[in-house]
Amino acid sequence: MATLSPKIITICTLFTVLSIASSAATDEEQTRPFKKLYAFGDSFTDTGNTKNGNGPSGFGHVSNSPYGKTFFNHSTNRYCDGRLVIDFVAESLSLPYLTPYLHHKGNDTFGVNFAVAGSTAINHEFFVRNNLSLDFTPQSIQTQILWFNRYLESQACQGVESGCKDFNETLFWFGEIGVNDYAYILGSSVSDDTIRKLAISSVSGALQTVLEKGAKYLVVQGLPPTGCLTLAMYLASPDDRDEIGCVKSANNQSYTHNLVLQAKLDELRKQYPQSVILYADYWNAYSTIMKNLTKYGFAEAFKACCGSQDPPYNFSVFKTCGTPNATVCSSPSQYINWDGVHLTEAMYKVVSNMFLQGNFSQTPFNFLLEKKERQG
């Protein structure tokens, strides 16, 4: 009986390994619910656009350690110690982490992230006209839609009929946006009502733009309870508190904003019945965690993990995370707040699970996946 030469055995083995790898890749592609993911929003969703923009100067050290340390072991231009909600969304869909638009350089097979840290819902010019801009970030959701349009044009996507933008296979994720708008008017004569009206109108316009282009599947995050962020606790009067210990005035602001946003989404659902539009309830997800800290693995509700060491919140606007005098806690996973304004990877992970697998999306995210599967 003839024996095969070592060279032939090696070639056969290599061929088998390649065949298995190719089969695995094909299987993974077949199990992906969506082929592409497009994201919009602010620093809670930004995966690197602010690196090439003008990021918030108070947290302008995102390119340095300790940002990214928990998961990536190096900075990834995320305002976090690791992954964001959008990263967990990508993982759940078996897609790679999204490349930021400003330096995608062709690495956009599976989608693009247009979110910018410091971005507002309202056009930046509004704040300039009212002398409210600190010139942190000139981008708004309208800028991101402009980038999106330019991106489609660069891909020769002139319309649905062109066939190159298959939005039947695309998930649009609109991360929370609007927190910065309210922050800009702090101490000014501009009312919450004015900001809410203009911000919701702007976000609605952005959603309509992608819906008119043929978007079929959208998830829209509401605002979190901003009164629970370290910065809000640091700035507000101690007697301005609600039943979960957060800043009552700020939380009422976010809650009211979300009610108006949800009403607008109901209108869009009626206007675009062929599309599935989900509301991701950041406010109630976050509030639920605050009421059950230990259940979700947290020990620190308000104190920043990375900060100034100043009591009681380990936070000072003069020694923010990433500056030489800031220190980092030994166990970020027990903290909700990462740097006083942004959340830890642990918090984003819990919140994303509540959106994707829990009852904090209306309708449930599984409904969107099931409808997508039925439509093929």
Structural notes for this entry:
The structure is a single chain. This protein has a single domain (34-291, 348-375), classed as Rossmann fold, CATH 3.40.50. By secondary structure, the protein is α/β, with parallel strands linked by helices. The N and C termini lie far apart (52 Å). The relative contact order is 0.12. It has helices at residues 6-31, 85-92, 124-129, 141-154, 179-184, 192-212, 230-235, 248-271, 282-291, 345-356, 365-375, and strands at 36-40, 99-100, 111-113, 170-174, 217-221, 276-280, 300-304, 306-307, 327-328, 335-337, 361-362. A seven-stranded mixed beta sheet has the order 2-3-1-4-5-6-11, with helices on both faces. A two-stranded parallel sheet has the order 7-10. It is globular, with a radius of gyration of 22 Å. Helix 2 crosses helix 10 (345-356) and helix 6 (192-212) packs parallel to helix 8 (248-271). It is 38% helix and 10% strand.
End-to-end separation:
52 Å
Q: Show unreliable segments.
A: 8-26, 52-57
Strand runs, count = 11
Count of separate DSSP helical elements: 11
Strand-residue proportion? 5-15%
Q: Give the strand order of the largest sheet, numbering strands 1, 2, ... along the chain.
A: 2-3-1-4-5-6-11
- The helix content, as a percent range, equals 25-40%
Radius of gyration: 22 Å
